[in-house]
Amino acid sequence: MRCPNYTGFKSRLGGRAEAAPKLDLDPAALGRALGRTLQRGVASWYGPGFHGQRTASGEPYDMHELTAAHKSLPFGTRLLVQNPRTGKQVVVRINDRGPFVAGRVIDLSRAAARALGMLQRGHDTVVLREVLGDEVDALLVSAENSISLR
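Structure for Endolytic peptidoglycan transglycosylase RlpA, as requested:
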């Protein structure tokens, strides 16, 4: 028996599937220079069990910082992670390797997951975009100082 709210087959049955909400990707509106879209896929988060342990980059993992683990991007890369479901976005810094679960594209820190509104779900679909320019460090520090993530 299918859930009454299930809409996955509407287009096959002649109905129209609902479109995903559009994200405002205007760089001026976001206050940052955006590069190309790098990946789309499922993100998850990791936190308490790894807090304080050494990451692949050598620094201790802090689940309260806006960081992430990616399989191949260089350490220190800044990414704009956007959640189309919630419309929220956050800039993270790559400091670890992962995820090690099939089908996932990025593992976020607890703070980044909370900023994206995916803390309770544990995983969600995201869009990864590169962030360009020298103002990235200032944006990241500003975001960490203005949001209470603990």
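Helices lie at 27-30, 110-116, 136-146.
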